[in-house]
Design brief:
The complex is a heterodimer. By secondary structure, chain A is an alpha+beta fold. Chain A is built from 18 helices and 18 strands. Chain A has helices at residues 8-12, 14-24, 34-37, 61-74, 126-133, 152-158, 165-168, 202-206, 240-252, 265-275, 294-309, 322-333, 335-342, 357-371, 399-416, 435-438, 441-454, 468-476; strands spanning 30-31, 54-56, 78-81, 98-101, 108-112, 117-121, 138-139, 175-181, 187-191, 215-222, 224-225, 230-237, 259-264, 284-291, 315-318, 344-347, 375-380, 388-392. In chain A, the strands form 4 sheets. Chain A has a 7-stranded antiparallel sheet with strand order 15-12-14-13-17-18-16, sandwiched between helices. In chain A, strands 5-6-10-8-9 form a 5-stranded antiparallel sheet. A 4-stranded mixed sheet of chain A has the order 1-2-4-3. In chain A, a hairpin with a 5-residue loop joins strand 8 and strand 9 (187-191). In chain A, helix 2 packs antiparallel against helix 4 (61-74) and helix 9 (240-252) packs antiparallel against helix 14. The radius of gyration of chain A is 23 Å and the shape is globular. The relative contact order of chain A is 0.11. By secondary structure, chain B is an alpha+beta fold. Among the domains of chain B are: 6-171, Uridine Diphospho-n-acetylenolpyruvylglucosamine Reductase, domain 3 (2-Layer Sandwich); 175-255, Alpha-Beta Plaits. In chain B, strand 11 and strand 12 (212-219) form a beta hairpin. In chain B, helix 11 (277-284) runs antiparallel to helix 12 (306-313). The chains are: A alpha+beta, B alpha+beta. At the A-B interface, strand 9, helix 8, helix 9, helix 11 and helix 17 of A face strand 7, helix 7, strand 9, helix 9 and strand 17 of B.
Amino acid sequence: MDMPLPNAGVIARKDRIVARLRAALPGDAVISAPEALRVYECDALSAYRCPPLAAVLPRTTEEVSAVLRTCWEEGVPVVPRGSGTSLTGGAMPTADAVILGLARMSRVLETDVENRFIRVEAGRTNLSVSGAVEELGFFYAPDPSSQLACAIGGNIAMNSGGAHCLKYGVTTNNLLGVRLVQMDGTVVTLGGPWGEPSGLDLLGVVCGSEGQLGVVTEAWLRILPKPEGARPALVGFTSNEVAGACVADIIRAGILPVAIEFMDRPCIRATEAFAKAGYPDCEALLIIEVEGAEAEIDEQLARIRAIAMAHDPVEFREAANAAEAGRIWLGRKSAFGAMGQLGDYMCLDGTIPVSALSFVLKRIGEMSRDFGLDVGNVFHAGDGNMHPLILYNANKPGDLERCEAFGAEILKLCVEVGGCLTGEHGVGIEKRDLMSVQFTPADLEAQMRVKDVFDPKWLLNPAKVFPLGSSAERRAE
Amino acid sequence: MRPSTEAELAEAVAGASGPLLVRGGGTRMLGLALGEVLETGGLSGVSLYEPAALTLVVGAGTPLAEVEALLAGERQRLAFEPPDLRGLLGRDGVSTLGGVVAANASGSRRVQAGACRDALIGVRFVDGTGQVVKNGGRVMKNVTGYDLVKLMAGSRGVLCVMTEVSFKLQALPEAEATLIVEGLGDEDGLSALRQALGSPFDISGAARYSGRSLIRVEGMAGSVSYRARRLRDLVGGEVAVVEGVASAALWREVRDVTPFAGRAGDVWRIATLPTVAAEVVAQVEGEAIWDWGGGLIWLLCEPGRGPDLAAVLAGRGHATFVRGEGGPIFPPEAPEVVALVAGLKAQFDPRGILNRGMMG
């Protein structure tokens, strides 16, 4: 993975920069000792590491503004960091960059059930947003797998999704407004609890901009009343194709489950060995969850059962109680951990049209043989967001490179069939150099022009998202 | 000008010697832009419709009515039920999908299914220099690069001319029912809407006008009747329930602001917090259609009430002057936002030729 050479001038001025940051912030908010900075050298894409120049942990929007203003004046790149759970290197620093961590900004600022929103600081974890309104009968819908740890600020940067976004949408569909600090320290409010933009939808372009347009310090989020109940069903099939056809038929029938999750045989086997969830030994399985009152759930699952039966399933298992529901989800939720038991893995995130599902799975199987690396598939089938997990051995020379080459081929395939490189993890550094597979130079130029407006010096998270060659001139200025 | 291909359109923009007034069918345009008319109606047609993937890709000039008929044939729809404002604004013409997107035109179902911008999954557009750009695509989950799709939704032609738009669709529900709550004043009637929206009964419409509060549920037949029953118990008061076409007709009136069509007076469109929705209208003294549980107010009032409205709102939302002498006027923005908007316009339309003067 290429990263630009750090700015030697900035590194040489480290003492002065740290001193200025210390002057702007309370004493304990600036970290500059090399051993303490190791914590920030990578995120969840841990194959790539680099300690930052310094790290700061501000407590208020004003402090964030002071940090950014200082770094802007000093020409220092800044890498915003929520909880560091990015799978794509979104929070990975460079040696000349200051990490701006949001961990100390985790308060709930306002809860308004009647107007159905909550206002939180951006360092608050995803799950604890739901936690803050749970007793009131509400929840925050986007639920990335890392929801116990990941921060709302990171969710906004990556426009995170989750298993339940088939019905409730991703972050951008549940985000009402933000306070954003621009690189020069300017604080701007975009949107607000009413949700409707007053002019251009700047909030819409900030969400998913991977921390390159500004640092979100507060967010207004839509909260939803909890459904009366939910129940999953598990359906096993004799082939990926049949499972894919069943997904299409459910959607075509006008049923909207909250989640349709897909696992293929390698993943089922690994999961069974690891979590013993009692899954059938079959080629593919779907976990389909529906919501509502008991009678509504019965009505929906009866329809789904009828559709599934037409595809001659190996098994159709409806959860009879909470314990059974838990077991159905257990395997899915431990799938990544189970694959991790088999070796190191790389998790991809391309999205494809649902209609291309079986073709793409077949091609991935063929490529797996060509590259000599095993792959398991577990993903959100309802919206075509795939998560192939490629297994490799990090200690075997050349394996990581082979794995990355295989991953790149899968992502190119996703684009070829009409999909995209990433459905919910973001581009980061991981898919940066594949962007030109999906976009023309003019497409990328249009996106980079937005960054020119928000961050003319290209100091915020600069070496991410865009191919280094495409952004070189801008970063050099 | 009425180009019939994207390439022709790009050439027309690149070669323009002065300002261009960009429009689809001109049925919902708000603003005073002057210039040579550039219509997108020639870019019409469905490039992809995959019912089993809930995906539609059409030329920006494709008529809304055509698309709605096509989708209905497959028992699907655009979830955000775009309003038809021809009656309200006194316009003729054929509404296009590009125009719907440019206005981010969203009806009552926004409270449940999101706005137009939430259903929009891809755009192709021509910027102010004539450059063709695509963003997003045809899949529902896509975080590849910046989300210019959202930026272009509601941009009213000031950044670009859209040439193709892609949507995530929704299946038509098997049944719909509307509770009509009568006999409540505005405060209580709006409170009933908030109560419904805070319930687990998955409300797809919450509106109030002419002294009646309307609450809509949609879905499978058994589920609709169950939820209607539970809601009736929840809100109390005098409740009637209408179903099917009768229910749909009510929501068309709300969506299209029909009660204000052809009537004298200024019309404002206000986005605010549902809890202050009654107060705003009471203080400005006008007639209101409340949608989105009170979060959207269509206000019909005497001319000259703008300053009062701004004072009453006091930062708790914003108001667009939609119809009346001296309008339309978009809400004022904070200086930092103005600077960002100016920056974006300068990047996407450096000559400032696209819908110059629109949106403030």
